[in-house]
Write a structure and sequence with these properties.
Protein name: Class I SAM-dependent methyltransferase
Shape: globular
GO molecular function: methyltransferase activity
Strand content: 15-25%
Structural class: alpha/beta
Order of helices and strands: HHEHEHEEHEHHHHEHHEEHEEHHHE
CATH topology of the largest domain: Rossmann fold
Largest sheet: 7 strands, mixed
CATH superfamily of the largest domain: Vaccinia Virus protein VP39
Number of helices: 15
Strand order of the largest sheet: 3-2-1-4-5-7-6
Pfam families: Methyltransf_25 (PF13649)
GO biological process, one term: methylation
Keywords: Methyltransferase, Transferase
Length: about 425
């Protein structure tokens, strides 16, 4: 299902593998993010019910230079989790970078396969988890692409996707139009990059792109994405953005449903609308209606990250009351999070939008006891307060940090 635009896209990623990565950097850091962070997959996709001892078979579809595949494979290796991560992409240039990064880390749990999402190799088999980050919005038929990926999921499996969102990309599409006129798509990528850089140096002060601080991929390395980032952002021959309702429609068409939008807090309009009369109106809205409202109000969402479940599968949520449930922090330590609490609130910022989350009095004491090993019951039993106080404050802390995608439940050991 290829066309002339798709051929241009394929040539782009051969000339400028995306994102720009140097395998030598693997010695000093692991790039982490969403989707496909192992703690998120355990919590949002499997509801912290799928045993860590079960082999996890994951497909990273459109793996590019390897960010998602390297992250997931490394986290599995560190945790001693059995399974395999299959990197799939049609770019041989990107494959070379991703393979070099995996070799630098000594990862043996990644398999590299060249191929297209719209023509999946027949011998790939089925998967427990599929990652498709930053790919669907470039396909000639995103609906067909998502349906194809849904078709290789095992029952009970799930997906993590990222697509562009229009409001936070204000200015991008205007500049894309300008560059199509002055740097036609039939010119060589290097020539188009040079023209785009020259245009950026003379961009009028009134251009919306100059007023959008959330877009940085066009900036030079290390602040931005270098030439590959600039090309992907401003010269990409196909770029489709989705509002929340449009994303829901795309997902439903593939026989899937949204299990979680990341971070859930960003899609809650109530922190943006403290007026009681306004909250009375939002109270009756569905999750998707609330998310669409928050998206339109905030204006800073340039992407949507979502974890998906098969529509035919029963809904699975993490059970915080389950015996043996182990709380984990997605990033940082409990002590670090506790230090951020000021006057009963925890300030957080999402792309320039600052929100102060109310946290309970025992939040610091609870956070300092979360180590990824102790169960919820063991953490609460160790907090010096009455059981009623601890139960109340743990529930309040979870209500604040789970929607931030920071306090999650670990996969059970067996």
């Amino acid at each position: 299902m290829s066309d002339a635009t798709d051929a241009q896209l394929a040539a782009q990623y051969e000339a400028l593998p995306y994102p720009a990565r140097d395998p030598r950097d693997e010695a000093r850091r692991l790039i982490v993010g969403s989707p496909s962070h192992l703690a998120e997959v355990d919590h949002w996709v499997f509801g912290a019910r799928r045993a860590a001892s079960l082999p996890l078979r994951a497909l990273v579809a459109g793996g590019g230079t390897g960010d998602g595949a390297i992250m997931l494979a490394q986290q599995m290796a560190w945790a001693g989790r059995p399974g395999e991560v299959v990197w799939l992409d049609r770019s041989g240039a990107a494959r070379k970078v991703a393979e070099a990064r995996a070799a630098a880390r000594g990862l043996s749990n990644i398999r590299f396969v060249e191929g297209s999402i719209l023509d999946l190799p027949a011998d790939l088999g089925r998967f427990d988890y599929v990652d498709c980050c930053g790919v669907l919005h470039h396909l000639p038929d995103p609906d067909a692409g998502l349906r194809a990926l849904a078709g290789v999921l095992n029952p009970g499996g799930g997906m993590g996707i990222m697509v562009y969102a229009p409001h936070g990309r204000t200015g991008v599409y205007m500049l894309q139009e300008a560059l199509r006129r002055i740097a036609p798509a039939d010119e060589a990528p290097a020539v188009r990059v040079d023209v785009a850089k020259r245009v950026m140096r003379h961009l009028p002060e009134t251009a919306w792109m100059r007023k959008n601080p959330w877009i940085t991929d066009h900036l030079p390395l290390p602040q931005g994405g270098g030439d590959p980032g600039l090309y992907d952002l401003l010269l990409n021959p196909r770029d489709q953005a989705y509002t929340v309702p449009q994303l829901v429609e795309l997902v439903a068409g593939a026989g899937m449903r949204i299990a979680c939008l990341v971070e859930p807090l960003r899609y809650d309009p109530d922190p943006l609308l403290p007026d009681p009369k306004l909250r009375a109106r939002t109270a009756g809205m569905s999750m998707i209606e609330r998310a669409a409202l928050a998206e339109a109000l905030a204006g800073n969402m340039g992407i949507h990250i979502a974890y998906l479940a098969r529509a035919a599968d029963p809904e699975v949520r993490a059970d915080w009351d389950a015996p043996g449930a182990v709380p984990v922090l997605r990033s940082g330590t409990g002590a670090e999070w506790a230090k951020g609490i000021r006057n009963g609130g925890l300030p957080v910022t999402f792309d320039g939008l600052r929100v102060v989350l109310p946290v309970p009095a025992l939040a610091g004491a609870i956070l300092n006891r979360i180590d990824g090993k102790r169960t919820v019951a063991e953490v609460m039993a160790d907090v010096p307060a009455t059981p009623a106080q601890v139960n109340r404050d743990f529930a309040a802390l979870r209500a604040a940090l789970e929607p931030m995608n920071r306090l999650l439940l670990a996969a059970p050991a067996a």
